[in-house]
Amino acid sequence: MSGKFDVAIVGGGVVGCAIARELSSYQLKVAVLERAADVARGTSGKNSGVVHTGINVPADSVKGKYNVAGAQFFEQYCADLDVPFDRCGKVIVALGESELPDLEALKAKGEAIGVQQLEIIDRDTLKKMEPNIEGAGALNVPTAAIACPYTLNIALAESAAAGGVEFMLNTQVLDINGEQGSFELETPNGTVSASLIVNSAGLFADKVARMVGVTRWRIWPCRGEYLILDRSKGDMINSMVYPVPPKGGAGLGIHITPTTDGNIILGPSADYTNDGDDVRTTAKVRRQLLSEATEFLPGISPRDVITAYSGMRPKLVPSSVGGFGDFVVEEVPEAPGVMQLVGIESPGLTAAPAIAEEVSRWTRERLPAKKNLNFKKTWSSVRRTREEELGVIDELVAEDPGYGEIMCRCEMITRREIVDSINNELNATSLNAIKYRSRATMGRCQGGFCGPRIVDLLIKHGGAPESLTLNGGGSWMFMGSTEDLRAERKAQRARAK
C-alpha cells in the first residue's frame, strides 16, 4: 500500500476503471481496490456487450441521462482504446400480431429520449434484413451497437495504470473508517488512506455504502445465463435480435446478439439469488434459452453451443416488485466525500464514459488538479494479429517470429499475443487474465489445445507451476509435479512394508 491517495475507487468494473482512466488525466493520486484477481471479472466482463441507444429507459431517469450521453461518444471511446466496436443495429421483434402495438409504444419512448432513425418494419422487410428470423414485424434501431465488454474494461484499467493509477488486485474492502479528507479503508492487505472514495462496487455497492453509514439501498443480485454459439454460425444474423420486452420483467427478455469476434450469444435469463457470487450455469436454463431463441431463429441447435457463462446484475428492485430501478450516481448527506454508484446494471457499459466524466467533475470540485501530461488517451494492449492484412502480418513476423506461431488454433491467436497478455500493466497472471486479454481458450475446444502451451509460457516467464491459478484466489491449477507424486507413493509403499 503506497501511502495516502487522493481518491480510492472501490471496484474494478467498467465504471470504476472508466473513472480511474478519466482521473488519470489529472495530477491526482488514485487507487483502485478490486476484490478479484483481475478487473472485468464481475458484471462488467459477463454481459451482452450491447451499446444501448436508450430506447428502453425513461427519458427523465438517471439511467437515461447517462445512457444517452455515453452512447454519443462511445464509438470514439472504443477507437481511442483499440476496442472492437460494431454499429450492427438492432431489431426488436414482435413474434405475433398482438405485440405490434408494443412496437409503436417503444418507438415513441425512444424518440422521447432522442434516439434517431427509428422505424417500424413489416414482416417482409424484416425477412429481407434478417432472412433467418421469424416475426410479425419489428422496430428497427440502426444506431444500436456492440463492443467487447471485457476488452474495454481491461483497456481502461491498463490505460489508467500506465497513467499512474495504482491497481490493488485481490484487495477486498472490509471496512471504512474516518471522514472526508481522511478515510481509512481496511483490507486483508493493509489499510489504504484516501481523501475521497468512489463506491463502484457493483453487486456489493450496498455493503460498501453501509460501511460509511448509508443504509438506504439494497442490492438484489439477478443471475443472467448466456450460451455462446460457434463462430461457424455467426452469419445467421446481421444485427441484434430482441423480443418485445416482457411487461414487469427483470430484464429485456432473452435476445440473440452477435459479438465483435464473430460468435452469437443467447441470453440472458433472469434469476434472482441471494449470493452475488453465484455465477453457475444450469442445464434447465440452457434448455430455456435454446427454446426461446429458436422461436426467433429456428436454425440453431444444441450442437452449435460451445460453452455457457453467467453474469450478475445488481438490481435495486426485488423480484417481488419487478420493473424499473434507476441508477444511483450521487454523494448523499450521510457520507460526504463518497460518490455512491449503486444499482449500475444495464446500460452501465454504455453509460460508463459519461458517469466517469461526472465523477471526475465531482472530484475536481473538491480536489483541484492540473492536467497530467502523461495521460494515455490512446491505448492498445494486445495486437489482434488475425485482423491484420497478410502484408502487415509478414512484417510483424519479420519483426518477431512469435507473430507467426499459432498457439490457439480455434481463435488464431499467436504466441506473441499470449506473451503480451502475460506482460500486462496490472501484473494479472491467472489463466483467465491471459484469456480475456488475448481470447485464447475461447474457441470450440475451450483451451484443450492451447491451454497446456499457455501454461508452458507462464512458467517460462517466471511462474512456478504451484503458483498458477485459473482465476486467482484458491483456484490452483497444479498440486505438484508427477516426480514428487511418484516419490511420495514410493515412500508410502516403503512405510507400508
Q: Would you mind describing this structure in some detail?
A:
- This protein is α+β, with helices and mostly antiparallel strands.
- It folds into 3 domains: 1-83 and 145-216 and 323-381, FAD/NAD(P)-binding domain; 90-142 and 220-315, 2-Layer Sandwich (D-Amino Acid Oxidase, Chain A, domain 2), CATH 3.30.9.10; 385-467, no CATH class.
- It contains 14 helices and 22 strands.
- Strands 1, 2, 9, 10, 11, 12, 19 and 20 form an 8-stranded mixed β-sheet that branches. Strands 13, 15, 16, 17 and 18 form a 5-stranded antiparallel β-sheet that branches.
- Helix 1 runs parallel beside helix 9 (348-366) and helix 11 crosses helix 12.
- The mean pLDDT is 94.
